[in-house]
Predict the structure of dna, SC012.
Amino acid sequence: MTKFFVRNKSRSVRKSQNPPNGDKLRSKESTPESSGRLSSDTQPGQEKQVCEDGNSKVSTKPEKNIVLAPYNYIAGLPSKNVREIFIQGIHIWIQVPQPTLESIKSITNILHQSSLMFDDLEDESQLRRGKPATHMLYGPAQTINSAVYALVNTFSEVQRLDSSETTEIFIDELQNLHCGQSFDLYWKYHGHIPTVEEYMMMIDHKTGGLFRLCVRLMQAKSISSGPHLELTHFVSLLGRFFQIRDDYQNLMSEEYSHQKGFCEDFDEGKISLPLIYYMQSSGLESDQVKGLLFSRRSSGDGLPLGMKEFILKAIKTNGAIGKTKALLQTMHNDLLTELHRLEASFGLKNPILEGILTKLQV
């Protein structure tokens, strides 16, 4: 069995004496920082220009425009900004100075956008958020170069936090993110079906990494005072729910079909939780589905519509889709229970986090 090691050095959380008003902590209008675009704060050689409408825009030297073009393309696509809203929700409980808060938002956004560029390239995805994936417009080489350049810029933001502890946290979680992705890619390439336990541990590395990074950085720079509280369980549950929900929606959601293509996970040969459930309880039929899924690797093309419909029907009939949905409902209830426990412990309601959970309910 594959062994996973997640290095999660949780920090203590202290209750604030002067809690902010949760109603005021709403997602602000899209800015270079909030959208994940690299702004003048993170780019050398930039200067502000005033447009005719009075708004300012960031201009860069020609070489910066070129290296950032792929990154700024994906950062400019419509997004629900769940991770930024999550940070605002955590800030109700764990207060940090405003400049620190903006730096943590920037670090998270840049890591998220650059990871999407890598993911789409490694998964050979053609669509992202209903638009062409970055490498479809700029090519693999330029996409990789731009994503790495953006990734390097996160180190500048981490330096602004001016703490050896935050640097250690950043490196720790960055390693976890890449380890999680490596397992995902390994399983797909070698046609290995992991256990449910192995899959959950992969999520803890990959999807849970960014959520955990936000919380750990905020804990390290907290100016709150009060009782020591632990958020590890809530963050772990949220990361797992987020990934499994994505697995389910990829196969069942019309919105996902529009944005990523019908059952795109089948095109990628991705090992998702519904597929794992199916493989666990099927006999010879599972070999047929496995043959269809992994035959695409040799051809380099996506699966024909008829084959994807065949696989989806098999997974539905088998009960794997229903089992995945039932798990999501249980996890959602567990998240609400844990949220309410934390609200009672902090002595402060968190409408932002509750709003996220409400929107994510399947």
